[in-house]
Amino acid sequence: MNEHRETGAGDTVVLKLGGSLITEKDRPETLDGESLADACDAVAAALSEGTVDGLVVVHGGGSFGHHHASEHGVSTTTGTGDVGAVMDVHGAMTTLNQLVLARLHERDVPAVPVHPLSLAARPDGVNGELDLPIGSTATLLEEGFVPVLHGDGVATADAGVTVVSGDEIVVELATALDARRVGVCSTVPGVLDGDGEVIRRIDTVEAVADALDGSDATDVSGGMAAKVRELLALDAPASVFGADGLVAFLRGEEPGTRIG
Amino acid sequence: MNEHRETGAGDTVVLKLGGSLITEKDRPETLDGESLADACDAVAAALSEGTVDGLVVVHGGGSFGHHHASEHGVSTTTGTGDVGAVMDVHGAMTTLNQLVLARLHERDVPAVPVHPLSLAARPDGVNGELDLPIGSTATLLEEGFVPVLHGDGVATADAGVTVVSGDEIVVELATALDARRVGVCSTVPGVLDGDGEVIRRIDTVEAVADALDGSDATDVSGGMAAKVRELLALDAPASVFGADGLVAFLRGEEPGTRIG
Q: How many domains, chain A?
């Protein structure tokens, strides 16, 4: 038996492992095995050393989910009623989830899959709130397991099934679980300013705009600005960092950019 | 796209396919391929003929789930904190679920997996209520999909992960979805009296006791009596029938034993 955690709310760490980190983003359904192994080593060490007590992992889709989603024209705002498309996206994501779980199990991390398609809904349509009940995740955590969620399909009123991103799940979980800290680990070392330097700290929405306005890559900064705004809205402090920062984050340090 | 269902609550049919029906119960992880194919034929025909508008399928564990659960000493009241045991039970059930889904997809049934381990919890322990949020299932139904649930592991306070039976899920879903009808299809032709005859109708708890008291097989009748009591407590009428009754049930008839 795992030791039951008798700790209250507020001890949980929510860790996002970006799809770009754990997969080869340009080759369909290809794992970045080395990066994933390194990330799983860091998670296993943190749990066995006790620097983290209560961990939820959320991973992105990378070349597994995104490939199929774009092939079928499915996104967070455009759904599909074609069950073949739903199963392609969900199947690829559960395959990736199984690969992540297997590497965690090899390192004695008591990881348990939690599939958003089984769990979540957008009952008010593509522009409505995400309904993500956390009973299963919270109870798994309390019982000493490590729930592992992922980007997935999600049933959406009047749209069939749309995509729910790992980032959206991170924000929902952090709020609902009253997380202590949130970590977003990807292939960039943090939120970058117009000169490509890591911004050490962002604590207001204005600072986001100022810092990111100078960036060349409009697309990326647009996406990053939205992500930063969502993380800023959380009660819990969040850190955005690269693979090099994961061990430090799990030790309680603040690598990359601290948000909020 | 599937046609969106614009019908309100009360149209949904919840169909349980017993583990004993779709697997060879005495041989570990062995499908009863013929029975499963017949059941999937009946489901596909009912949907294409429009005799059912809104269907949720729940399947039992049969020789997939039960084998691993008993090997690890896990039951509805005895949990495990061993992630290997959890993954053995859940893995076997998701394998069976994939086999069921594949056969439904072959017949153009828009079946989508909903895994209870991702969804459900017993937050008050083994004797507490099952928390089974139905947002995903309800929205999938409204969007024209056929959610397929199954017996599974479930996170349970102070007990790790216990088993949730397909029967328990049927009762919860039927209540929460305000189902119109519930069908329990297994290898017995209905609820049998002491002489082995099918009881055509049971509508009071007293009738259950009277009818089943005479039965020789104490174990079976004990289990059946509990099942009948749970079905009696539902608002929706339930039918308990064998493989021969499935087509009739899906046409709106009442084969086997009608309960409630």
A: 1
